[in-house]
Amino acid sequence: MRTRQIKEVLCLLCLTLGTVAMAQSQTPSVLDRVQNVDNPELGELIQVAMENKSKLHSLDQIETMELIRKVTVSYTQIKLFDKQIAEISRKIEASTGPAEIRYELTLAKTELEAKLMTEVANLRELMGIIPRHAFEKQPTRSLNTWLVLNVIDERIYVLETLKPFRDWWAALRWNSAGLLSAKETLDYTRERLNNKNNLPIRIDIYHASDMRSAAEELRSKIVSLAEEANAQMEAEVHTELSTWVGSGVSTFFIRQGTISTLYPGGKQITRPDGGSKPIVTGVVEPNDLDQHIKWRLTMPKNVPLKFRIEYDETSTALAMQTADKVRAVAKDLGISELVDVERALVDSVPESAFLGRWQAITKGDIQTIDIQPAGVCVFGKSPGSKIRGGTNVPGKWFLTPKEIFMDIKDRRSVGYYVYRGHLDTEGNLAVDRGEVLPQGNFGSDRLYLMVFKKVY
Question: How far apart are CA 396 and CA 91, in angstroms?
Answer without folding.
Answer: 81
